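Intended use. Records like the one below are meant for learning the mapping from a protein sequence to its folded structure. Do not use them to infer anything beyond what is encoded.
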Amino acid sequence: MRFIPLLFVFMMNVACADSVSNDEASATAAVVSSAPLAGPEGSALAVERLRQAFPGIPVGQIETSPVDGMWQVEVQGDWLHLSNDGRFLFAGELFELRAEGAVSLVEERQKALRVPGIAALQADEMVSFPAADEKAEVYVFTDVTCGYCRQLHREMSEYNKRGITVHYLAFPRGGVTSEGSRLLKDIWCSADRGLAMTEAKLEKPASQRPSACSDPVADHYALGQRFGVRGTPAVFSVDGEQLGGYVPPAKMAADLGLN
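Structure written out for the chain above:
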């Protein structure tokens, strides 16, 4: 479960108050966690105990869990299950055994958050590589300093040949003040974003000088956090399913039902 390392970060912050996390999310956690929350009636005590155990934890949405006697709490795109009295915390995959099989309640809830986020994206805020005969679209959170991101980009023609249009969103792994973030901003502020992305991914000199622009890097980074992105590449389908990190073209086509 992706949230386990994040819990460890908050535990370390308690043990060493002067430490600074490399994760940009942790740098703003205290600000987020201090905001008033409007959870279901009766959830305040449990959430307060959670905050006492993990100071600075950026608690988002709070909902009644499908599991009796528990709340489900959203933290940066992941969902925790917290007992109604705040004594017990479960961080991990939780499955409901339905007639159609085992269903992850965590992934199901995450997908419900991702779908409207994807639908709200505008074409001009992404760097897209369209398939001539489009059969499916994927949304990829990317960082130009990431080896597997470069591998995915080197195979772009293969994705496109299989009818997959790739939309890139910016997700600088070092945070929005990192060098990777600056490089991504330069791409989004270039006249030919596709060329700028390709040159950066193939580690070639930039042939364009970026101009001043209002780039979406910080917004994309925040969206990725809400989607539960912890690394790059992170590939999502239109219906909010995370297909994986780097996924070879043939497997991605199969996962999308194109084979």
